[in-house]
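Ig-like domain-containing protein
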Amino acid sequence: MLREIISSNQKAINFSLILVPLPASTHPHYLILLIKLSFVFSDGALSQEVVQLECVKRAKLGDAVVLKCLTHSMWRYRVWYKQATNKTLQHLSSADYKYTPMVTDHRYFTESSAMETNLTILQMTEEDVGTYYCGIFKSRDVVFGSGTCISKSVTAANASFGGGDMVLYFCLLGFGWK
């Protein structure tokens, strides 16, 4: 997927790669490696103002899930959005970290400080599976983090892989302007 959105002179590069490096015959479990990089280039200099440390987070239905976002920035106004598969972005929360945040659903809770903003999903449901983006308002633009993908945990009893089974290979490279 290649996407370009032009709104200012900042360029963002997002790269995601999921690999299954070892066949079942050489290792009893499939290894999945996720590499997700997000950089924001401004006037030729690299700056990363919004950092979501977890690319993937697994949780059981009913669990509370905390998504952390570091905002190495002086910008006070923070937002959280969710994107479910084949859905548009859904606004979850807005906040000036010095004041009480506004959340769109009682199942979410947001807390912020000068350098961090966290979103808590109080009880995970199937509807909560998706990618969550933390962002900051910078002038008239929103600068987003790389996103945290929440997936439902599957117990070993519910999953089965045969010796010849293939597992997902996924690569996404996106270039955009922010």
